[in-house]
Amino acid sequence: MSTRRSGTRDAPVSRFPKGPLLGWVSMSGTRKPGLATVADLPHTMLTSSGRASLYQALQLLELPPGSTVLVPTYHCPTMVAPVLCAGLTPRFFGIDANGLPRLETIPDEVRTSARAMIVAHYFGVPQNLGEVRRWCDAAGVALIEDCAHALFGRVDDQAVGSWGDYATASISKFLPVPELGLLASSRRRLPAKHLGAATFRAQVKGVVDVLESGATFGRPAWMSPLLRALFALKNRRRLHPPASAPGPMPALDEEEMLVVCDMGRIDEAPLHVSRWIHRSMPLGRVVRRRQENFALYAEGLKSLPGARPLLSTRSRQVAPYVFPLWVDDGDRVYHALRDAGMPVYRWDRIWPGTPDLAGDHGPLWSRHVVQLLCHQDLSREEVQTVIAEGLDLLGVTAPDKM
């Protein structure tokens, strides 16, 4: 469990799991995912997290201190924090309606000073980065392909992660591990790099966190009552902060944002438990269940007044991270879903100093795009409950059967 940090607030207790859980069913199914994955790239290295992978990629580029790194205006803060930790300078670019960089709007002085560019596959729906790759080659800019949401996938017959000089991924978003990231490349060898070992306490805490997350939601079923009792006894000794008020989170300055991003283990190796789960877990179920849940959202949330799917896909070459829903009344609907304990996110906390750019979709997405989780350990009934809650907030009567 994370400690409360200055400037943050406690999230409401989730009614449904906000991430994958370890249980007996996790170890069932086919070993191979059935589609391309970033881990298939020829050169790979495990890290402690996706943000650690971004940091390590920037370190490997050996850029002069203070060099410009281009970052999208629509971002999670953990996309920006590694740039500062590497001693580099983030400069922001706008995105189009598909989440791709608006390359033609990047000023010449920014383009000529840039040494690297981070481009993300948002929501786990891969985009063709061929044009971005050509722009980077012409400008002499290294491309870091952020696959935090897109561990799996192929678009236009090219595997996700293969456009970038480096690709980074967040395995903890797809498997029931407390932390785990991946740095990969189809173009550059990764030199052998010694990452510091995690402390014994961190190793034990990682095992406890995996078991506690599963027990909270009844995984594995026969052990969960005992585990829940043990964790309840453990947590009785904690000082619990008061419940937070609903509504927007307070704005943070840059120093507070770095604290929230928790960059403490970016130079350390992954935990043993994370490595074991990553090595042992079959991936076929992970892909299949995510595709099924995404399809449930797509069917249940189509043709709505005041809302629409942002990026849809019928491709079987995708295993999405979330279902992105554009909501006209984004503030009200998101906070209502969040405070009701629904498995939802929104990237509404952007880095201080992110500019307002003409024609940029980033600020609009930050307000209007609600990310509905579709991971493999959300049941069909749980997804339908999320859909029904959303329909109710939009003033739509849910059908009896979906």
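^ that was protein a. below is b, sequence first then the tokens
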Amino acid sequence: MRRAVTYGILVLSLIILYTGCTALGVKNLKLEEVKKKYTDSHSRFVNIDGNIIHYKDEGTGPTLVLVHGVCASLHTWDGWTGELKGKYRVIRMDLPGFGVTGPVANGQYTLDNYMGIMEKFLKALDVKDFYMAGNSLGGYISWNFALRHPDQVKKLILIDPVGYRQDMPWLLSLASHPVFRPMVRHMMPRFLLYNAVKQVYGDKSKVNRTIQDRYFELAMREGNKKAYVGVFAAMREMNHSKNLSTEIKNIKVPTLLMWGRKDEWIPVKYVKNWQKDLPGISSIVYEGAGHTPMEEIPVKTAGDASRFCLGSVKDSGAGAAK
């Protein structure tokens, strides 16, 4: 509590300091504005239980389903799609609560609700068996999907995934705290999101204004700030659960773990937890990369992913994880 209050005072002080010269993230962007900028000829929409899911379905070959992380969107997989759509049918969606898709229809950001939406989404696209890759929260969703549907997921790729209890990133911890939720539902200052984007990159020089604006503007999509608070609150509850990681040992599908050595959100030390609970797992640690290596170093990570899906991949650097 004391830590959250301290962060809150800091945030409010910065807001006061920057009022008049920094966007406070109060104004919402209309859905049509967001669609105009962040959809293209590959964009498709499907209604799943009242959720108008924005997704892209590109390429031909074996199917690869990509699941993005918290505060992100399907755009985080642009690099992978460019590299892999010549060999795979690449399917990626804006999870409900994020991106163009926007808030989940029933207001529930639980694992069970995400599982149900994912199951119906894949059925609507007539996808029966596939490779699956997920980052961060998307990794959590992916490994739980593989647990429930080992007959559908041929191989699983987890990129800096949520899996074990940990200290939440300070921004998520603050925004999910009951004291500050009402404020965050209406205000998400630009400079805080810009800083969060820099945090998830290992090489800060790769973060440019275009990337930062994308994360910020999609957060401003009408309804998304409130949705973020719902997601953060669900993650806070999930992180406090004693059962968060108990099922990891029951994952049956071949799994590749990818991790950025400089991950500030979920430290690389958790690689050892995965190796202990899932002895057959393959793993790669990327020197210099952060929490989203698929976005930061797409060519390298996409190549490793493809080699794993179509054959095998040798462990690299995981034994040195600290």
